[in-house]
Each structure stands twice: as C-alpha cells, then as structure tokens.
C-alpha cells in the first residue's frame, strides 16, 4: 500500500460518513429542505445517486399500508425519492418537480388500516446533470442561476425536499450568483473524489467572479507540490524587503509522496482507481502466504458468542480489537465477527501448545485483516494500533519467517500513518523515527540482488520518512538521507522495468534535492532537482496523466525560479515562466482550482522578478508587469471563490504583490501609460493594499509593512495626480486609519 493509497483510504472513509449523513437527512422525510450534494467525480456521483435511489425510492419489503381484507403482503410503493435529470433547455428544478407531481400524483390510501383516505407522502427529489450546463451557452447558465435565485418563493409551492448535485465550480458560482438559494440550504454534503475532466470544446465554463487587484513588495513565494491528500499543499511565508524589493526566498516545499509508500499487499485486493490529484503510483502486488480467513467457510456471524476470557493474549491487543468493533463507522456484522474469531483461534492455539510458527501465522492473519481494513478506508488510531501489535507479535514468535522483511516494511508504514493520524502531531517525530528503524531492519534482512522489488520499495519508503523527519529536526542531514535512499531505490527500480514507479521516485528525489538546496550547495542541488523532475516528466503523457504532468511542470518552474536567485536570472526566470505556463494547461480552474490558483500565483511572481531584472529591456518591463497583474488576478479570483478550501499561498501576501505591481505600472515614468490609466493602476494598488491590511491585523510586522505601502500609494496619488488625486485616495481609506495616514503625509 502506498502513502497515496492512504489518501485514497481517507477519501473512502470520508465519503462513507458523508453518504450516511446524507441518507439519514433524506430518510427523515422533512418537508421543503434544500440539500446540496457536491462531487467533482462524475462516476462517484452517479454511484452515490444510484445507491440513494435504490435504497430510498422503493424500500425493499416495506409495507406502506395493509388492506384489512387481505393477507400480509408488501404492496407497490409510491417512491420516497425521485431522481430527475436537469432539463438543459429550461433548467428550472422546481418546475420539473411540479411537472413530475402533476404526472404522478400521490395515490390515496383508501383501504389503509391507519390512514384511510389519506395521500401517500410526497417524495423528495434529487436533481443530477448540473455539470452539463458547462457545455451550454452562457445564457442558459445564467437562466439556471436566475431560477435558483427565485427558489425561495418557488419552494413555497411544493412540499418536497430537494437534493441538488453540483460539481465544485458550480457550487462556487451558486454561492456568489444565487445567494437567495444558498441562504435557503439546509445542508451541504461534499464528497471527495477525482475531478472528471471536462470534454474539450469551444465552450468553457463562465467564471462568475473576478476580483480585480494586485501587490509586489511582499511577493508571495512559489512552492513545490505535495500530493499526499487533495488540497494539502503548503507554501513558504514571503520574505519582505522594506526598501521595496524582493529578497531571495526561502521556499518551504512539501515532498510529493508520489510513489508507493507500500504495505505488502495481497493479490486478492482490488486497489481501484485513485484520484489523479494525489499523484500516486499503483504498486505491484506482493503475494502473502497468510490470508485473512474466508468468512464463507465459517458459521454465521450471528451465531458467534461474546469473547470468552483470553488469558494468553495481551490485554492491550484484546481491548483494542473490542474498541474497533464497538466504534465501527458502518455496522458490518461480518467485519465485527471476523476479528473476534481470529482472537479465539489464537487463544485456542496458545492453549493447545501450538508451534511458534503456527502462532506467528495466526497473529499475521490478524494483522493482515486490519491492514485490509485500513486500505479500505478505516485508518483510525485503533485499527492502526491493532495491526502494529499483531505484526509485532508475529515477528516475536517467528523471527526467521521469510515474510519478516515485508512485515517490517508494513510496520514502518503503519508508524508513518500514526504520525499522520490526528491527534498524534506531538508524538509525530517519535513515530517517524520508529518507522525508520523498521525500514532499516527490513533492509538488513534482504539482498537487493535477490529481492530487488522489495528492496527498492523499502528504500523509497525510507526516503519519504526521512523527508518527514526533516520537518522536526536536522533538516540538512535528514534531507541528505532522503536523497541517498531515493537514489538507492533508483538503482534497482529502472525505467525499463517499472516506468511509473521509476518516474514517481525521480519526482521524490527531485523534491529532496530542492529541499537540500535550501541549506547547502544551492546551485548544485537545484540543478540536480531539475534533472530529476525532467527525468520523471519524460514518463508521463499529458493526455493520459494531465494532473501529474502539470504538477511536475509546476515543480520544475519553482526549481528554475529558485535557481534564478543564484545564476543567469533572466534565462532561468524565462524557463520558470515557460514551465508554469505549461503546467496551467492541465492545472485548470475547472478541474483543480486550488492548484491552478497556486501556479498562477507562482507565475505572477516569476513575471515580476523578470520585469525587475537589470538586463530586461525597458520596453519589455511594462508588458511583463501587465502579465504579472493578470496572473495574480487569476490566482486571487480563484482563491476568493474557494471559500473554506485550504490554499498553498497567502492570499493577503498576493494582494500586496498585486498592489505593488499596479503601483509600479502607475508610477514608472518611462512606461507608455496615460494619466487615466495611471490613476486606475494607483486605485487598484490602494484597493489591494487595503484588502491585505484587513487580513493582517494579527501579524504586526506584516501589518506595518502593508500600512507603509498604503501611505506610499497615497503619496503617489498626490505626485501623479495632484491634490485632487490625493483626495480620491483618502476617500477610499477607512476613517479609523485617516489620522495616522495624514500624520505621515
């Protein structure tokens, strides 16, 4: 199992919980409720909608009423949930609901024991197909939003509840353009999944918001992706030069756990497809000799008696197994029964004086059972601890088993997962160090010549663990260890044998080199990072792996941007801009808006740096700054539309950056800008600095710098446009700031 498989498992667990909450909400039968189902993965959406329909529409065996003169029997059921596809020619959900009810009115229960002469309850409705509006004319899209704005009045005409399925781009559009509908919502149910790529055509989704603004002296830094879970990207804090320029940035990048941070895996396990945004690589499956018990060959779980006294098994393990049974998210009798049976079998083996090898195999089965449960999405603390204790017992009883290296690798990965499982952040370093010990033990027991695949997998996992450890202590030393581990893995994981695993490991190595460059030999290590990224890129076809391809292009751009701080700035900045621009062909706002915003932010920074190089011709600087403004505005437009979504860059820093770019366009005398345009640039600069100032009240140093930008911009209004311009600027400033600003003018 890979680290990114754990991300997939987290998605599975999350989706299961969201589904059950949604199902419960619909099952309550409340009237006039508006639920919004959010899902970017069209296949997943269809599966969930179909399951809701099959479960709620015609409940199997439900007797809605029982005629008094007939024997007990189930009668035809009027649906409790109706599924409708949005009418794209007239996209009005309420009209469609009313039309359906007109065609299929609720039947009257004339012979019911309890409800003679009463109508059956009106069903709830789920509407699918909103995503198809993206390919419709803008007028149709606006008509749909218009109908939603009228929903507050229209819902009074129906008794039904509504579940509206939308992808995230349309969710943001509804929030901004149909606030009346948004206010009426009862609940939002967001599912995690891989965005379904839109069909390429000439019609693109309309953007429903476009905040305009910009900033420069406090330019936000670029970043390198981490793709452990969707949206978990991090960026460095920007470094401000109070004299009005930008210092070399110390970018904090996140390692991309792109490859297979593997468990040993059974051939019987169906991994399925994982979200592309997680950039994970499917690993080869390693056969286990010990399989979880086949429930089909055992007695029914309903006949299992409570656990007897287990005197030979550790109390900690027993209590943890019972805890996993009692806290199951989905009450599955089969899953609750199997671990009890395995514990009973282990207790009986102890009582019978079974061989150490037999006991080890039994504990191994218990560990495998919980490993599979973790792979299927239940990666909670109790399940992780049961798997760890069971595997440790297996090794204790049979240290000579040929499966010990694989078990040690699994233990390393389980400890890594403990570090990633809340609330274990305080113990994170200890867990990672324990995981590293297990990986190192595994490597001592295997030869790369005889166990090439296992050896490469463990080395890759070891590199990832060292990368995490670098966040806690000795970053230069631990990143160097990560480089050594990834390099060793690549000696035995060749492009010919395993091209995708090879490419993912090269990407990991590139990121490790990038981090190492922040501590020593920056030019040497950045060049190596670019070489590794470029090698990885050669094994991904953009038409087949667009998000992975775009992510590596973004990483290449950041490495070139960083290298430009040390040598050949114009050349390396142009290469960074080319890489970011290529990345944005695949990291689109419609598919991965947060990643698109981050790359746009990086692109804006690169344009600004190139514009301010002494070697850049004057005639090119104005155009580069204008491109910088466009990129920052795109980043901010997306950022402000992604309410509640984690971003990898500081939005307030980007507002400052955008403001500084506008300031430069409005004040550089050799630019071909008329008086009206200069005024517009200065107004945009002031608007952005003020917006940044509003968000920096709890950051005294950043607040002080931004306040100085505001004062500087107000002065520029006076210098460029006279007293009338200064009055325009002061009219935009909040009243509480005026006394302090006036004292500085």
From TrEMBL:
Q: Where is this region: Disordered?
A: 267-309
The organism sits in which domain of life?
Bacteria
Per its UniProt record, what PANTHER family does this chain match?
A: FUNGAL LIPASE-LIKE DOMAIN-CONTAINING PROTEIN, KINESIN LIGHT CHAIN
**Polar residues composition-biased segments:** 277-295
Q: What is this protein called?
A: Tetratricopeptide repeat protein
- Its transmembrane ranges are none
């Amino acid at each position: 199992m890979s680290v990114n498989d754990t991300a997939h498992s987290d998605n599975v667990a999350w989706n299961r919980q969201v589904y059950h909450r949604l199902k419960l909400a619909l099952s309550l039968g409340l009237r006039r409720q508006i639920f919004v189902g959010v899902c970017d993965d069209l296949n997943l959406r269809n599966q969930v909608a179909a399951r809701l329909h099959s479960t709620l529409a015609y409940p199997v065996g439900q007797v809605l009423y029982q005629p008094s003169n007939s024997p007990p029997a189930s009668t035809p059921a009027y649906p409790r949930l109706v599924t409708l596809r949005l009418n794209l020619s007239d996209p009005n959900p309420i009209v469609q609901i009313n039309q359906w009810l007109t065609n299929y009115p609720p039947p009257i229960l004339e012979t019911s024991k309890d409800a003679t002469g009463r109508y059956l309850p009106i069903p709830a409705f789920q509407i699918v197909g909103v995503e198809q509006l993206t390919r419709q004319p803008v007028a149709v899209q606006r008509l749909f939003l218009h109908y939603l704005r009228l929903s507050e009045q229209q819902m009074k005409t129906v008794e039904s509840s509504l579940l509206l399925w939308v992808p995230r781009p349309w969710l943001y559009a509804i929030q901004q353009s149909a606030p009346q509908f948004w206010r009426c919502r009862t609940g939002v149910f967001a599912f995690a999944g891989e965005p379904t790529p839109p069909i390429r055509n000439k019609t693109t989704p309309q953007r429903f918001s476009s905040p305009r603004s910009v900033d420069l002296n406090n330019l936000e830094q670029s970043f390198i992706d981490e793709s452990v879970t969707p949206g978990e990207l991090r960026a460095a804090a920007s470094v401000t030069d109070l004299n009005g320029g930008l210092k070399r940035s110390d970018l904090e990048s996140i390692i991309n756990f792109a490859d297979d941070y593997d468990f040993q895996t059974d051939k019987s396990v169906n991994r399925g497809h994982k979200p592309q945004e997680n950039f994970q690589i499917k690993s080869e499956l390693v056969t286990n000799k010990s399989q979880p018990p086949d429930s089909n060959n055992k007695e029914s779980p309903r006949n299992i008696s409570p656990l007897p006294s287990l005197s030979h098994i550790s109390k900690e393990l027993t209590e943890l197994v019972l805890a996993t049974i009692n806290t199951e998210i989905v009450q599955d009798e089969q899953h609750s029964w199997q671990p009890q049976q395995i514990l009973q079998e282990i207790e009986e083996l102890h009582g019978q004086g079974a061989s150490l090898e037999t006991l080890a195999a039994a504990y191994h089965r218990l560990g495998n059972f919980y490993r599979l449960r973790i792979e299927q999405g239940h990666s909670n603390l109790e399940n992780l601890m049961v798997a760890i204790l069971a595997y440790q017992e297996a090794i204790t009883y049979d240290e000579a088993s040929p499966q010990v290296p694989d078990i040690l690798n699994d233990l390393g990965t389980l400890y890594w997962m403990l570090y990633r499982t809340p609330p274990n952040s305080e113990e994170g370093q200890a867990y990672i160090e324990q995981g590293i010990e297990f990986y190192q033990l595994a490597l001592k027991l295997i030869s790369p010549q005889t166990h090439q695949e296992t050896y490469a997998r463990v080395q890759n996992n070891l590199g990832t663990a060292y990368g995490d450890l670098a966040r806690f202590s000795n970053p230069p030393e631990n990143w160097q260890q990560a480089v050594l581990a990834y390099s060793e893995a690549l000696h035995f994981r060749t492009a010919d044998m395993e091209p995708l695993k090879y490419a993912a490991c090269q990407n990991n190595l590139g990121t490790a080199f990038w981090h190492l460059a922040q501590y020593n030999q920056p030019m040497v290590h950045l060049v190596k990072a670019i070489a590794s990224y470029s090698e990885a890129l050669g094994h991904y076809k953009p038409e087949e792996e667009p998000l992975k391809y775009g992510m590596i292009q973004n990483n290449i751009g950041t490495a070139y941007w960083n290298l430009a701080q040390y040598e050949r700035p114009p050349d390396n900045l142009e290469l960074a801009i080319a890489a970011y621009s290529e990345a944005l062909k695949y990291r689109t706002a419609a598919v991965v808006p947060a990643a698109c915003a981050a790359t746009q932010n990086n692109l804006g920074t690169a344009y600004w740096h190139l514009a301010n190089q002494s070697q850049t011709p004057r005639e090119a600087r104005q155009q580069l700054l204008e491109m910088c403004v466009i990129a920052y505005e795109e980043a901010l437009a997306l950022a402000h539309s992604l309410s509640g979504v984690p971003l990898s860059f500081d939005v307030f820093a980007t507002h400052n950056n955008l403001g500084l770019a506008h300031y430069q366009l409005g004040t550089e005398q050799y630019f071909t800008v008329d008086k009206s345009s200069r005024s517009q640039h200065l107004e945009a600069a002031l608007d952005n600095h003020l917006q940044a100032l509003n968000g920096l009240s709890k950051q005294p140093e950043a607040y002080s710098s931004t306040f100085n930008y505001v004062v500087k911009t107000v002065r520029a209004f006076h210098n460029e446009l006279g007293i009338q311009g200064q009055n325009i600027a002061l009219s935009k400033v909040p009243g509480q700031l005026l006394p302090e600003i006036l004292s500085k003018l």
